Amino acid sequence: MAAEAEVTPAVKKTKFPQGDPLSQLEVDAQQLQRAGRLAAVIGDTSSGKSTLLCALYDRFLRGEFGERTFVGSSTLCGFEKLAHLSRAASGAQTPDTERTFVSEGLQYYHLALANESRHRVDLFVSDRAGETYRSGMDRPDEFRQLPELSVARVVTVLVDGARLARKEELHEVLGATRRMVRAMVDSEVLKSSQHLQIVQTKQDDVERSGRSASVKPHLDDLVQRLKSDFGSSLATIDLFAIAARDPSGDFVPAYGCDDLLTTWCDAAEPPVWRVRQDRAPATQFDRLALVVPRRARK
Ligand SMILES: Nc1nc2c(ncn2[C@@H]2O[C@H](COP(=O)(O)OP(=O)(O)OP(=O)(O)O)[C@@H](O)[C@H]2O)c(=O)[nH]1
Ligand SMILES: [Mg+2]
C-alpha cells in the first residue's frame, strides 16, 4: 500500500501591520489607495512636537475631539511608544515624552477621523528630531532634503512657550522662528498653496510664569511681520496657542489642539492652475492639463 502523502493544511497566513510610524514612501503608497491630508509639525528641540501627537492620540482614546471621532490608525504601536512615559506603567513620577533622535529620521503618524456626517479624513502628521530643523535655519538648502515640508498642506511651526516665558530667551526664540520661516520660503520649499501655523506651545508654563500678557503682543507682532514679508508666498499664516500636556492638570489635555486639527483636516486645497489657452494642445499631457477638475467648475 502506497504511503499516504503528507497533507499540509492550507492555512491562510495573514500579515498584520506592525503599527509603527510610517516613512514618506509608505505614506505615498497609502495616498494612492485613499487620498489623505498631510501636516508637517516642525520646530526646535523640546518645542513639544511629539507631545502634541501623543496628546491628540490620548484625547481620541477618550472619545470625540474637535468634532471628530477616531476611526482607526495604522500607527497604533508608534502612538503607544510615544505615550509610554506619560503612562503610570512607565513608573515615571510626572508625564514626559522621550526625545526624538536625528537617527529616527522622518516619521508619520496616522489618524483616520470622521466628522458628524461620517465623512472620513486620513490624517498623516510628521515628526522628526528638532535638531534637524534647527540646523536648517542656518543652512536653508538642508530644508530641500526634508520631503515633509513640500508635501504637507499645512506646515505647523511650534514655538516653545516655556522659553518664550523666560525674558532672557524671548527674543532669541522669536528670531529663530522668523529665520526658520524665512529659510523655508527663500529655499522655495514652501509654496503659495500651503498654510503656515505658528503655534506657541506650553501655554500652562506661560500662564504660570505670569508673563502671558507680555508674551502675546510679541507673538502677534511676529505673525504680523511674517504676513507682511511672506503673506504673498503662502496661502495663510495664523497664530495658535496650545497646552498639549499640562503636568499640573490646570489645562485640559490637548488644550487648543482642536483648532490645529480642524485646519489640518479642512484646510483649503491648493488652487487649481489653469493652463493658458493661447496655443493649441500639442501632446496628450497638454490635453490632460486643460481638463479643469469638476470642483473648480462653476
Ligand atoms: N508644561 C508643559 N510641558 C510640555 C507640554 N508639551 C510638551 N511638554 C514637555 O516638553 C518637553 C519636550 O517635549 P517633546 O514633545 O519631547 O518635544 P519635541 O519637540 O518632540 O523635542 P525633540 O524630539 O527633541 O525634537 C517634554 O518634557 C514634554 O513633557 C505642555 O503643554 N506643557
Ligand atoms: Mg520629539
Structure summarized in a few sentences:
The protein is 37% helix and 15% strand.
- Sheet/helix structural class: alpha/beta
What's the count of strands?
7
Q: What is the total domain count?
A: 1
CATH first level? Alpha Beta
How many H/I helical runs? 11
CATH architecture descriptor name: 3-Layer(aba) Sandwich
Average pLDDT over all residues:
88
Write down the secondary-structure element order. Answer: HEHEHEEHHEHHEHHEHH
Biggest sheet, open or closed, and with what strands and sense? 7 strands, mixed
What gross morphology would you assign? globular
How many angstroms separate the termini? Answer: 80 Å
Strand content: 15-25%
Evaluate the radius of gyration: 22 Å
Strand order of the largest sheet: 2-3-4-1-5-6-7
Bound molecules: guanosine-5'-triphosphate, magnesium ion
Q: Name the CATH homologous superfamily.
A: P-loop containing nucleotide triphosphate hydrolases
Considering DSSP H and I runs of 4 or more, what fraction of the residues is helical? Answer: 25-40%
Low-confidence stretches: 272-276
Which fold name is given in CATH as the topology?
A: Rossmann fold
Summarize the structure in words:
- By secondary structure, the protein is an alpha/beta fold.
- It has one domain: Rossmann fold, CATH 3.40.50.
- 37% of the residues lie in helices and 15% in strands.
- The protein has 11 helices and 7 strands.
- The chain has a 7-stranded mixed beta sheet with strand order 2-3-4-1-5-6-7, sandwiched between helices.
- A hairpin with a 5-residue loop joins strand 3 and strand 4.
- The longest helix has 20 residues.
